[in-house]
UniProtKB/TrEMBL annotation, chain A:
Residues 94-311 form the ABC transmembrane type-1 domain. This is Peptide/nickel transport system permease protein. Keywords: Cell membrane, Membrane, Transmembrane, Transmembrane helix, Transport. GO terms for cellular component: plasma membrane. It comes from Pontivivens marinum. The chain crosses the membrane at residues 12-30, 100-121, 133-156, 185-207, 238-263, 283-311. Belongs to the binding-protein-dependent transport system permease family. GO terms for biological process: transmembrane transport. It comes from the Bacteria. It is a multi-pass membrane protein. It is found in: Cell membrane. Gene3D superfamilies: MetI-like.
From TrEMBL, chain B:
SUPFAM superfamilies: P-loop containing nucleoside triphosphate hydrolases. The lineage of its organism: Bacteria, Pseudomonadati, Pseudomonadota, Alphaproteobacteria, Rhodobacterales. This is Peptide/nickel transport system ATP-binding protein. GO terms for molecular function: ATP binding; ATP hydrolysis activity. One of its GO terms (biological process) is transmembrane transport. InterPro entries: AAA+_ATPase, ABC_transp_ATP-bind, ABC_transporter-like_ATP-bd, ABC_transporter-like_CS, Oligopep_ABC_C, P-loop_NTPase. It holds the Pfam family ABC_tran.
From TrEMBL, chain C:
Residues 89-289 form the ABC transmembrane type-1 domain. Belongs to the binding-protein-dependent transport system permease family. It comes from the Bacteria. It is a multi-pass membrane protein. Pfam families: BPD_transp_1, OppC_N. Keywords: Cell membrane, Membrane, Transmembrane, Transmembrane helix, Transport. Its main location: membrane. The chain crosses the membrane at residues 20-41, 91-117, 129-148, 160-177, 216-243, 269-289. One of its GO terms (biological process) is transmembrane transport. It is found in: Cell membrane. One of its GO terms (cellular component) is plasma membrane. This is Peptide/nickel transport system permease protein. It comes from Pontivivens marinum.
Length: 324, 561, 301
């Protein structure tokens, strides 16, 4: 078990190093950092001095090591566009994205898992067929179109909900939260739903497929032959076994939530990291792009490590050693 | 107690209703072990499923009555039927590896089963569960009960399965191939347990199996099925000793006997309507072609001190995992033109031997020679080494040993092309067709796909593929264990014929001692990767030297009458 | 051949599934329309001379002011909406298909080799896949686009747009193929027909491509369908975010982005015509994917 965790930890560190390397290569090779930082009037000597100061003449691996070291110490460099420290810019935006992503993920799980279970247990019913068709259409509509439709319906036609921004926010420590005001929640509903729909359909289809697989297994057949009450059979036996593969995929889906948050944030002008990333792409603001990558990969790796721990909690085969 | 009359089960399908069971009647009394025996497709398991009310949809009971005591099993609501399951009828499945919920402890599974049918406190249920486990032969049940299924060995797990079926005191237990996945030693313990439970607790058993040996060993009465119909039924001893129905007679003739060797099984050869090969070549031509290449006859093989280690699964970062020793300094000598029987339980290293010889696994130590020439280990053996052709193999599972996406013609002509035996494509096709004729298949099979053939026919195709390499050493790894007895007899006859005609050397790997006896000139017994005994076959079966070999022979279910 | 297809299980299932039949028909019509757009469409939306501002913002024919010449109306530039969506679908499908093919070749190749050889090679491929997974599709695509902007001089952006977009989408989809191909290869590799081929001394490439590949095509075909749908969606999303294709050679996504500007005004058709067209296309591809999944599920036979 300890070995399993350590192995996963090493894999995670590898992923982080690879992403850091990607980010570093971006910074180093896409465009010339010096010409980005200086104006036309800077002399050649000044440029050369800056180059030396930045350590751009050092050996490549040495530069990468220093870059990684800086990242670890929270020194993320400066934006080409705003000249602000990137760390501050990102830190300002993190709460908005995390709140949006978390609420969306919760929506997708709260609806997706029960719907998946229901459709797996009643595979031929009318309700099931309707749900399946709806979700199929759901995965086929681009996230931004769902956003537009929601804005059009609830924002423009009905005028019930705000269509952009975070609404009322509260400062808690360094964290700007919209979870503590009614206005904040009202602003959060549409974007979170938009972001959650796609994950919801994926979760539902996955739970359904896995559950149907489990329902056909020998141990469910045996439990049926022993007359275990249906409710217990479905939830204690079948659902628990379904969750083992499902949580792995949900962990991987977290990446999808983050990615689509870029789209959602763009549609709803939600001031999160995704919007920042889009702006940085538009202006080729390499340091911000690079750091965004590292931060996203970090969250992804963190969530998947947590999933591994959950895995161990659920599955005794990973927890308890084999014995004769 | 259980009385089934005129049971008919149908499965609706695209081509109209398929009748899986037709007019089957049987009855089981308390304490009786009633065997249901038959080959695949006989409908044995369907009867069991119908009785317990778990027919796979869309199957349905079309006709017949089923009563258990005073309860009409066909007239139950879904809820009543579910209450009946466990409480009065229970079931044991084939594979103990998959029939327990891996996420729940044995204790949880036992207690929930007891509480599902009885209003009883958890601690009382636990006490009963522990008593039951002890009765069934699990030591230190009070602590072992806290364990998860994966912490038990195969045989112990099947005991847990039996405990689960038993814990609600049912009157009838349907055991569907309960020992098929187990080794002989464990199988005999489980069978003893079933027999004891029938006697002491008066439970009626329906024992579904394809193994006549198992039927002979523990059942009181037997029903012989074929194609969903009852062929014959009666007291086991009478039916097996003096079968009345021609099918039962043929079945008994096809069963390999542990106590004697027969030269040929008395079974009808395959009932294929033969179509002449397109080029007019027949089995005789294939035979001539083969003899052209194997004038030298079979090759001898010698293995000396071969040791195979597999890396263990890593569980710690600092200590290197213990390697798993699959073969421990194994030596074996196969005489040219003879059949060497390689026997052992699962995990004994039989299949690893085949892999070492064919070059799929590299031994850590040891030497091998084939026909006097050194046979390099897998890592040093070039792809075009002559042994690649000389050594051929027939596998266990005819359903996976032929590539499902290739036509028979492509499968058969591959060795001819690969080894450069026949440069001309048309000629390759002719020889392939002739070879099909030789192994007893119609030559027009050449344009079909493997899924259009039965298991026995596929095994014939696999043999044909092996022969088309002009081999001098043939490895047969459990070639008949996936086949029905009558088909097994046909395939064994084919192998015997070919061996006699071409003087092939064969390494015949099997866990089934009765089959091995029919085939082998010599015997090597493996246990945990070590050779326990190596002998001439007849000497081995009449007077085994090693204790383990003697035990193995004793425990193998045999027809003694 | 035709008769065999007609009697095959797959076709039998198709005849029993009206949803799959309709989906097949819609997908066929859209693809045919896209392929033959230059012959079907009344105007060439890329050719500024073929339309006129005078015809701008005409509603569909059934609304007041609609003209029979433009059945689904025109956009603000005076482009015929039907021509625009046909050409747009052509571009979207082209990018989607190319991306899918590249992703398939790359992913299946690596997955097969990883599953076949196992060991260190497998570990390396899977770690790369891990990294790719940590950077999801949209992110990868955006990133590659960003790099292209940084590396290439700005006047070249327009020319390499399609290539950059295709590559970006392909790179974000290959992992799916690689993981599936690897998992299936692991299973197939231990089957006896593969062992037989290995024992015979066949070349690893022959074993992989001639023996294993045909046996793992089923699940891969399902992924190909589903990923074609994702590729089209991804292209639309990127174009919507304004980093996909420019307005002078609009894909479906670009058309939707343009239509967004008219969300609040009365010209609803400029937004909803391409949107509904896109949804119909993707829904039908996904329905076909679902259908294929059933066909390849051995339990349903």
């Amino acid at each position: 078990m300890v070995y399993f965790i350590l192995k996963r930890l090493f894999q995670s560190i590898f992923v982080m190093l690879a992403v850091a390397f990607l980010s570093f290569s971006l910074f180093r090779f896409v465009g010339d950092p010096v010409s980005q930082m200086t104006g036309v009037e800077t002399t050649v000597e000044d440029r050369e001095r800056l180059r030396e100061e930045l350590g751009l003449n050092d050996p490549f691996l040495f530069q990468f090591a220093r870059f990684t070291g800086d990242l670890l110490q929270g020194d993320f460099g400066y934006s080409y566009r705003t000249r602000q420290p990137v760390a501050e810019m990102i830190a300002d935006r993190i709460p908005a994205t995390l709140e949006l992503g978390t609420v969306a993920l919760i929506i997708s799980l709260l609806v997706g898992i029960p719907a998946g279970v229901y459709t797996a247990l009643n595979p031929r019913g009318f309700v099931t067929q309707s749900i399946l068709l709806t979700t199929l259409v759901g995965v086929s509509i681009p996230t931004f179109v769902i956003g537009i439709m929601l804005i059009f319906l609830f924002g423009v036609q009905l005028g019930w909900l705000p269509t952009f921004g975070r609404g009322g926010t509260v400062q808690i420590g360094g964290w700007t939260s919209s979870l503590f005001t009614v206005e904040g929640w009202r602003a959060l509903i549409l974007p979170a739903f938009t972001l959650g729909v796609y994950q919801l359909t994926l979760t539902m289809r996955l739970v359904r497929a896995e559950m149907m697989e489990v329902m056909r297994s020998d141990y469910i057949l045996f439990a049926t032959a022993r007359g275990i009450p249906w409710r217990r059979l479905h939830f204690r036996h079948a659902l628990a076994n379904t969750m083992v593969p499902v949580i792995t995929i949900i962990g991987l889906q977290f990446g999808g939530v983050i990615a689509f948050s870029i789209v959602t944030e763009s549609v709803f002008q939600w001031p999160g990291m995704g919007l920042l990333f889009l702006e940085s792409i538009r202006f080729v603001d390499i340091p911000v792009m690079g750091v965004y990558l590292v931060v996203i990969a970090f969250f992804f790796v963190l969530v998947n490590l947590a999933v591994d721990l959950l895995y161990i909690a659920i599955d005794p085969r990973l927890r308890v050693k084999e014995a004769a | 107690m259980l009385d089934v009359q005129g049971l008919t089960v149908r499965f609706p399908s695209r081509h109209g209703d398929f009748t899986a069971i037709e007019g089957v009647s049987l009855s089981v009394n308390p304490g009786e072990i009633h065997g249901l025996v038959g080959e695949s497709g006989a409908g044995k398991s369907t009867i069991g499923a119908a009785v317990i009310g778990l027919l796979q949809p869309p199957g349905y009971i079309a006709e017949g009555t089923m009563t258990l005591g005073d309860v009409d099993l066909r007239n139950l609501t879904a809820a009543q039927a579910h209450q009946m399951r466990g409480a009065r009828i229970s079931m044991i499945f084939q594979d103990p590896q998959t029939s327990l919920n891996p996420l729940m402890t044995v204790e949880d599974q036992l207690i929930e089963t007891i509480q599902a049918h009885e209003d009883i406190s958890t601690s009382d249920a636990r006490t009963r569960a522990i008593e039951l486990l002890e009765e069934i032969g699990i030591k230190q049940a009070a602590t072992r009960i806290k364990a998860y299924p994966h912490q038990f060995s195969g045989g112990m797990r099947q005991r847990v399965v039996i405990a689960l079926a038993l814990c609600t005191n049912p009157e009838l237990i349907i055991a569907d191939e309960p020992t098929t996945a187990l080794d002989v030693a464990v199988q005999s313990q489980v069978l003893d347990l079933i027999k004891r439970l029938a006697q002491t607790r008066g439970i009626g058993f329906i024992l579904i199996t394809h193994d006549i040996g198992v039927i002979a060993q523990i059942t009181d009465n037997v029903t012989v099925l074929r194609g969903g119909k009852v062929m014959e039924h009666g007291p086991t001893e009478r039916v097996l000793r003096a079968p009345e129905h021609p099918y039962t007679k043929a079945l008994m003739d096809a069963v390999p006997r542990l106590d004697k060797r027969v030269e040929r099984f008395l079974v009808p050869e395959s009932d294929v309507v033969k179509v002449a090969s397109p080029a007019g070549l027949t089995g005789a031509d294939a035979e001539a072609w083969l003899l052209d290449g194997v004038q030298q006859g079979g090759a001898d093989l010698e293995m000396k001190d071969v040791t195979v280690r597999f890396a263990g699964t890593r569980t710690s970062l600092w200590t290197k995992p213990e390697p798993f020793v699959a073969l421990d300094s194994v030596s074996m000598q196969v005489r040219p033109g003879t059949v060497m029987g390689l026997v052992g339980e699962s995990g004994s290293g039989k299949s690893t031997m085949a892999k070492v010889i064919t070059g799929l696994v590299s031994p850590a130590e040891g030497q091998m020679t084939l026909a006097g020439d050194p046979l390099p280990a897998a890592k040093q053996r070039p792809r075009d080494h002559v042994s690649r052709r000389l050594i051929q193999m027939v596998f266990q599972d005819p359903y996976s040993s032929l590539n499902a996406r290739h036509r028979i013609g492509e499968i058969l002509s591959e060795p001819l092309w690969l080894y450069g035996l026949e440069p001309d494509a048309a000629r390759r096709r002719q020889i392939s067709a002739a070879m099909l004729d030789l192994v007893g298949l119609s030559a027009d099979s050449i344009d079909r796909y493997p899924h259009q053939f039965s298991g026995g026919q596929r095994q014939r195709i696999a043999v044909a593929r092996a022969l088309l390499a002009r081999p001098r050493f043939l490895i047969c790894d459990e070639p008949t264990s996936a086949l029905d007895v009558s088909i097994q007899a046909q395939v064994l006859n084919l192998l015997k014929d070919l061996q006699a005609r071409f003087g092939l050397t064969i390494l015949f790997i099997s866990h089934n001692l009765a089959v091995v006896r029919q085939m082998s000139d010599d015997i090597t017994v493996l246990r945990n990767g070590k050779v326990v005994e190596a002998q001439r076959s007849e000497a081995f079966f009449t007077a085994p030297k090693a204790d383990y070999a003697r035990e193995l022979l004793q425990l193998t279910p045999a027809i003694t009458f | 051949m035709l008769a065999r297809f007609w009697h095959s299980d797959g076709f039998w299932m198709l005849r029993r599934s009206p949803a799959a039949m309709i989906a097949g028909l819609v997908a066929f019509l859209v693809i045919a329309g896209a392929v033959f757009a230059p012959w079907i469409a009344s105007t060439d939306p890329y050719d500024l001379a073929s339309f006129s501002l005078m015809d701008g913002l005409l509603p569909p024919v059934w609304q007041d002011g609609g003209m029979a010449q433009f059945p689904l109306g025109t956009d603000d530039q005076g482009r015929d909406m039907i021509s625009a969506i046909l050409y747009g679908a052509r571009l979207s499908l082209l990018i989607g298909l190319m991306a899918m093919v590249i992703a398939t070749v790359l992913g299946v190749g690596l997955g097969l080799a990883a599953g076949y050889y196992g060991g260190r090679f497998d570990a390396i491929v899977m770690r790369i896949a891990d990294v790719q997974l940590a950077l999801p599709a949209i992110l990868t695509a955006l990133l590659i686009d960003g790099i292209a902007r940084g590396v290439l001089p700005s006047e070249m952006h327009g020319d390499v747009r399609v290539a950059v977009l295709t590559l970006a989408i392909a790179l974000s989809l290959w992992v799916n193929f690689a993981r599936t191909a690897r998992a299936s290869t692991f299973v197939e590799r231990n089957k006896e027909y593969v062992q037989a081929a290995m024992i015979m001394g066949q070349h690893p490439l022959r074993v992989m491509f001639r023996h294993i590949l045909p046996n793992i095509l089923g699940p891969l075909l399902v992924i190909m369908t589903v990923d074609l749908a994702s590729a089209i969606l991804l292209e639309a999303t990127l174009s919507f975010l304004g980093i996909g294709l420019p307005a002078d050679s609009p894909s479906l996504g670009t058309l939707i982005r343009i239509g967004m500007q008219f969300l609040l005004s009365g010209e609803w058709w400029i937004l909803w015509v391409p949107t509904l067209f896109l949804i119909a296309l993707v829904v039908s591809i996904n329905l076909l994917g679902d259908f294929l999944r059933d066909v390849f599920n051995p339990r349903l036979h």
